[in-house]
Amino acid sequence: MIDGEIGPYGVPVISLRIDGRDWSAVIDTGFSGDLRLSDELLSVVDARYIGEVRSFLAGGQVIDKDNYRVWFPFDGRTVLAEATFVGGFEILIGTRFFKRYRLEIHFPKRTVQLKRSSQ
């Protein structure tokens, strides 16, 4: 199980330890992909280019980004996922990444909980 919190801007956030460093990861329920990672993690997650992906953003904006298959450390395991990379130090985790998890966001208590599902 992974516990997180509602961050200062009202978004669900968890902390991940990757390659000896703590990273802030936003759970983005409006992002239907797996991951958006910092460029700094490109070599850490053994990224393999698989092609371009088109993303449809709020306000009708469309962007094309290089898409990679990565081995991402998460919840005590290393899982295969797809990711795009950008500058900065924040990770976005999309809804497709959580297909084997139950996500509970309790806004009044400002808590976030991820639990691996047995189904």
What does this structure look like?
This protein has 119 residues and is mainly beta. It has a single domain, classed as Acid Proteases (Cathepsin D, subunit A, domain 1, Beta Barrel), CATH 2.40.70. It is built from no helices and ten strands. The chain has strands spanning 2-6, 12-18, 21-27, 35-38, 48-56, 62-74, 77-86, 90-93, 101-106, 111-116. The chain has a ten-stranded mixed β-sheet, with no helix packed on it. The two termini are 15 Å apart. 24% of the residues are buried.
**Per the principal axes of the C-alpha atoms, what is the gross shape?**
globular
Topology as H/E string?
A: EEEEEEEEEE
CATH architecture: Beta Barrel
What do we call the CATH homologous superfamily? Acid Proteases
Beta-strand portion reads over 45%
Rounded to an integer in angstroms, the radius of gyration calculated over CA atoms is 14 Å
Please mark out the parts with pLDDT under 50 across 5 or more consecutive residues, or reply none.
none
**H/I helix tally:** 0
For the biggest β-sheet, the strand order reads 5-6-7-4-8-3-2-1-10-9
Write down the domain tally.
1
The CATH class label is Mainly Beta
